Amino acid sequence: MSVVEKAIRKLQESKQSPGGTPAGPEPTAGAMPAAHPGAEPPSARGPADHAPAISLDRGTLRSAGLLPPEEDMNQLARQYREIKHPLVAPAIGRGVPRTPKGYLIMIASAMTGEGKSFTAINLALSLARDKDIRVLLVDADVAKPQLSHVLGLGDAPGLLDALREVERDVETLIHPTDVPTLSFLPAGRGSPEEATELLASGRMERLAAVLGEHDRARIVVFDSPPLLQTTESAALARVVGQVVVVVRAQSTPQPVLLDALKILEGHPSVSLVLNQSVHTVASSYYYYYGYGNERSEPSKAGGA
Ligand SMILES: Nc1ncnc2c1ncn2[C@@H]1O[C@H](COP(=O)(O)OP(=O)(O)O)[C@@H](O)[C@H]1O
Ligand SMILES: [Mg+2]
Hints:
34% of the residues lie in helices and 16% in strands. By secondary structure, it is an alpha/beta fold. The protein has a single domain, classed as Rossmann fold. A hairpin with a 5-residue loop joins strand 3 and strand 4. The site of adenosine-5'-diphosphate has 15 residues, from helix 4.
């Protein structure tokens, strides 16, 4: 049985018992490699000029479907605490050795509409509550840059501009937000053809490394295009240390998920988040399950 089939089986097993049980064991550290050399020492650069600060207005995010109703926020916060925990530890070396490039986390899914953008921003907000972490949320869904649009940065220079103009300091394109530990890099400007080419180019690997190495406490969360509908998503997966695949419960057909996971086969750290959003977040629950890097036990987050 392949690792993908095992992952699906585990996912299905956990799906059959949505009893809100406590989170499963932490990922073990055993097989994790030593600290990523590129992350040392912390950047000696001073604070870069940056793009104008923006507000993460909760009302705007909520109207765009990127935040749940106010009354469900506490429950969602609890769920995201469970989801982020096994991602943070190897990203910053908290209690376990750092995973190479583990601080670069891609939020992926097989198809569009499975909750990548929702997960990316809610994970970023949850990570930003951790005082030891600075979070950079990157809109890498260049074909459908929903986050950039919702945050009023649909026309702002961003990722694509930094990829095109290699001499440009990408830090100057990053927008601080009213959440002090969270900043945002919009998708930027470019034709769809150029976007695909740029994201799949070797430049993306260099840029991702630059973004991650800027600050030792930084975790970069990439919202991304769907794995099965674009080629750039697979390319992005190759440059990050951790991939989180969002699966929409009762929606993503199993063969579709398997095809998406096949694209990621061989990646050292792939996790699944089952995102069930039936009517309200109160009826949503997430299961977190990771494989790779000895993550062999399912971990369940939340439960309603
Ligand atoms: N956990 C959730 N709870 C409530 N609504 C959700 C949840 N996840 C996704 N949605 C909704 O599903 C739709 C698609 O989500 P989105 O994040 O835009 O998907 P993607 O980025 O994968 O295309 C959005 O309208 C979003 O509001
Ligand atoms: Mg999206």
